[in-house]
Each structure stands twice: as structure tokens, then as C-alpha cells.
Specification:
Strand content: over 45%
Number of helices: 0
Number of strands: 12
Radius of gyration: 16 Å
Largest sheet: 6 strands, antiparallel
Helix content: under 10%
Shape: globular
Distance between the termini: 22 Å
CATH topology: Jelly Rolls
CATH architecture: Sandwich
Amino acid sequence: MNLSNDVKITKVAVAAVSAGTEVLGSILDMQGYEGVAFVTSIATANAGNLLKVKQDDDSAMGSPADLEGSGVVATANAEIVFADVYQPTKRYVRASVIRAGANTAVGEIYAIQYKPKVMPVDNSVTDIIVGAVLVSPDEGVA
């Protein structure tokens, strides 16, 4: 068993240059998954710059609600932050990076959905994400 067959990896937002506006990730459908971890980097540490998670029953996120305790503040410049939500109570979720404390750049935001009801998961998406699964590989040319 290997990790890449047990999780779905999705880039939900591209990197954003330094600014003071919110960065919204794309909406994820959690049907068929138990949890999701969002991962990104925040260039400027500030109490007002944070990653948080929202959820909604509506696939268009018409009335999203913040998840209590999901706000993760970078404590050092260029720190990686993550928010892991296990068993969200609504079907649709999205990551949001708030840049209210100081203008800052934000790295790409990735979602790692885990504990799928159907396995294995295919993470190869043309022009988006590609990888390799190695099982007991010999040493040699990479």
C-alpha cells in the first residue's frame, strides 16, 4: 500500500503575489472522503495573515461558514501552514487565506483528501499534477 493511492491531491489555488486581499481556493466536494488537509505557505508572518477553512451545503458556496478553530497563523516568514479537517459536517469545503495584517505573498494551496471510500485514487491529471509510485525500487538512474 502506498500513500498516493490512498489520497487525492489537488491544487486548489495558484500562488498569489503580495497583496492584502483574500485568496480563495476552489471548492472541494468531500463526498467519498473522510477528511482533507489544506497546505500552503504565507510569506509574511502577521497575526492578520492566516489560512482558514469554510464549508457549505451548497456546491457554489453561497453561504459559507468558517470552521471554528481552523484559522492557522504563520509564526515566521515563509512558514508552511496547514489545516486538517476530519469529517466536515457539510459536503463542500474550501480553503481561504486572509491577508489582513500585512500585504503578503501566498504559495500555491494544495488539498489532500484522505480516507477515500473507493481506492485506489488516480492523482495523475494532465498538465496539472504528475508523479511516480515506486515499490522496492532498485538503485540507479532516477
